Amino acid sequence: MVGNFPPSHAQDETTLTDHHILPILRYKTDSAGSHTIAEAGTAFTFGEGTVVACWHCVAPPAGPDEAYGVAVRRDDISAPYEFCSIDDLGRDENGADLALGRIDWTPGQALTLATESAAWGERVETYGYPFSIVVPDQTFSDYKSVTFSPVFLRGYVTQVVPNLNARPAMHLDMLSPPGLSGAPIIREDGRDVLGVLVGDRNIQLGGESFRFGEALLLDALRSARSTATDHRPLAEHLER
Fold it and tell me: Which of 12, 163, 188, 234 is least enclosed by beta carbons within 10 angstroms?
């Protein structure tokens, strides 16, 4: 069972968070229906049926009769959430911490894949589901009930460094709590996706500790490919 969250103040932001940036769930299906096992991060779609997430969020194998999926609202914000399975889920064949899949959900274009990378000092923003509340289901004790609490964050690109899997990554002056992994990094006041949040980085300097959000850069996202993209780079797949 999944829960609701309050509507956004702006209708376009509500549509974006409800329809294009989605919570990932691991769930089990039995004779009583589909039940949540665990919440597993954030995913997003460009609206044509492809979904992007972090590989580390969906790498743990699902058990018998279990699957990874996203929770979607196929109508407005008053509609209940539905499980939507992620099919053809697999890791980016280039080895980045990205997962690609297909979902039976095509809400149309709201996010766009950027062609120009984020600049040093540029302001960016993200949305995601780091503070979901997971508790035992009152009816089915082996399963969980989830209440989603999406957040909006904004910050700066503070540094571009070679880091993850020998790929450049960007550091962000932005919090990155657990559950936000897989969220898109979006150009401020726009819809261009510039990268994917993968976690945070702790930097020690002068006896002090500093934490930065960390994201894969645009080149990793544009070149990501898997069965879900027919082994084409994501940028080429979205142009079809």
Answer: 12
